[in-house]
């Protein structure tokens, strides 16, 4: 029994779509309906919000076929990102992730089955949203998903 309990307390690492818990990635294909649009992925929604003041850039992201395209497009035009982005990006991510897990019952179930375990986006490509690959990153996506899990657990 003690062994089982230990497993529930260990961290869950996610990043690649083809690996366990890849569904937790923002690149996972789980369309969300939010703010009057259908977004193919959380990543599409998140990247588009950087340009909510620019109708052309915003609409272009909605129509891109892959989350990688959405990410790359936002990077290409990063000099045009809204000035308050750093202040609101966590709230935007939370809103998108809430929609994803509320609108897809199988994903909600998967998230809830993680119990109280720490969720970690494990990548050396991102030290804000991820763990930086070596644990020195902020893991903001992991914390966002744990917050979503907590809200769903206590309010649904």
UniProtKB/TrEMBL annotation:
Q: Start and end of every NADAR domain?
A: 13-152
Q: Name one Pfam family in it.
A: NADAR
Under NCBIfam families, the record lists: ribofla_fusion (TIGR02464)
Provide the protein name: NADAR domain-containing protein
């Amino acid at each position: 029994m003690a062994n089982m309990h230990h497993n529930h307390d260990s961290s869950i690492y996610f990043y690649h779509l083809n690996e366990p818990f890849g569904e937790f990635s923002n690149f996972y294909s789980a369309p969300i309906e939010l703010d009057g649009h259908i977004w193919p992925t959380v990543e599409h929604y998140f990247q588009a919000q950087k340009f909510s003041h620019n109708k052309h850039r915003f609409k272009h992201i909605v129509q891109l076929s892959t989350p990688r395209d959405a990410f790359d497009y936002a990077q290409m035009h990063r000099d045009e990102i809204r000035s308050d982005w750093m202040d609101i990006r966590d709230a935007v991510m939370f809103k998108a992730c809430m929609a994803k897990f509320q609108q897809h019952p199988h994903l909600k179930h998967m998230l809830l089955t993680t119990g109280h375990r720490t969720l970690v986006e494990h990548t050396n490509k991102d030290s804000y949203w991820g763990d930086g690959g070596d644990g020195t990153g902020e893991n903001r996506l992991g914390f966002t998903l744990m917050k979503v899990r907590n809200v769903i657990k206590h309010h649904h």
